[in-house]
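We treat protein structure as text, and this decision shapes the records that our systems exchange. Such a record has a labelled line for the sequence and another for the backbone structure tokens. The record that follows is passed on verbatim for readers who wish to inspect the format:
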Amino acid sequence: MWRQATQGRSAFVPMRSSFVASTPTSVFASAPFTTQSMRFYAAGGQDDLVVIGGGPGGYVAAIKAGQSGLKVTCVEKRGRLGGTCLNVGCIPSKALLNASHLYEQTKHYFPQHGIKFDNVQLDLKAMMTGKDKSVTGLTSGIEYLFKKNNVKYAKGFGKITGPNEVTVSGNDGSTSKIDTKRILIATGSEVVSLPFLPIDEKKVVSSTGALALTEVPKRLIVVGGGIIGLEMGSVWRRLGSEVTVVEFTPAICGGADAEIQADFLKTLKKQGMLFKLGTKVTDAKIDDKGITLSMESVQTKQSETLTGDVVLVSIGRRPYLDGLGLEDVGVNVDKRGKVVVNDDFQTNVPSIYAIGDCIHGPMLAHKAEEDGIAAVEKMTTGYGHVDYGIVPAVVYTHPEVAWVGKTEEELKKEGVQYRVGKFPFKANSRARTNDDDEGYVKYLSDSRTDKVLGVHMIGPMVGELIAEPTLLMAYKGSSEDLARTCHAHPTLSEAVKEAAMAVYDKPIHF
């Protein structure tokens, strides 16, 4: 999922000619808008664009469309904008990750720095209230941005009832139809569950339920060792749970570089997490004692059981397209349930487009945002571009993990000759003074041209540090390009610079 190959999208497609009043509707479905065409449609009362879904991809696309002068409506059934990410995903999980980290620091690390407290206690209700406050503030902020950019907001379930029509079943019980030139599907994704372990969001939870537990479970089992499972497992471990992660594959954090995976596993074990890798969950039994999972080794087929008070199922996500009406209008969907689009984000029905989790590429909020902007740019100017080869991924545990581009394993498989440069945070002055120096930065560069092919990090704040090499790779830069750029001292970013130096020469401080 993380490294899925995609078609290239050129950013340099020539602008097509302007419309005239006699242009057939079928042409409007595939050509970019112009000022002339927008005036034409405004006069007719038809929307230029209806976006179905108000998550990161959908709301960003709607705002971009409004900024571009289009007459646009965004339809969102949740009643709050921001989608899974803002409401029950990225944002609330980061709030709990931060709060639980502060709690753990207060109990175990602050005394080492001369800061002492008596009787530190957890107020879980207050922690959850703080999380909810963050979410509410951000969702209302998107509504403000909609008003600022002239985006109409329809609260309800949107169904495509024609190539140029969306029917909205309003949350207030009303029904309305929107006539529109184009439709953009941005409905996101939903949790994949296990057939024998139905999610009730109380004892068997998805990430949604894991963000709203009313008490700290004594024993938490996490099924799935990916980003979501490791982040939520970290939250509840810090707050007092015994956390066991059950992962089908032999490694955690799928998609990451193997060296990073191994070192990350060591760190999480040192923190107290338990792991059962290469293990398949085959059945479950729920009784007064808790939830007992039946498991077997993928390799040896040896069976065992594991009992917990709460089970978090985090084995992946799939496109959410239920009830959207795609079959009725003839939109093609592939065998994985993803909407099939071309380089313009356009489906086989020329007036209907799709972005984000429901099409190919990594299922990440920031990828969906880039899709949304590029799709609208394609509609309005004829060009737009997203390079799925340099979409960064981040695990917001502590230490954090981040990467962009190719892993060593991928380069070896492709037969690419490469050089490696590494620099540890233990040799970085800012990390040392912060007493937070676990991890390193690792570069992979072409051995002939020095072009950076991948960058992998584990350490403090690497989710922020990954942006610099991502920009470097966007411009096809070399490790020497970054290494010869002055970085402020003392900063964590100096580790990024010195790791680059280690590729083509030698670092100074290690």
In short: Confidence is low (pLDDT under 50) at residues 1-30, 34-44. The longest strand covers residues 151-162.
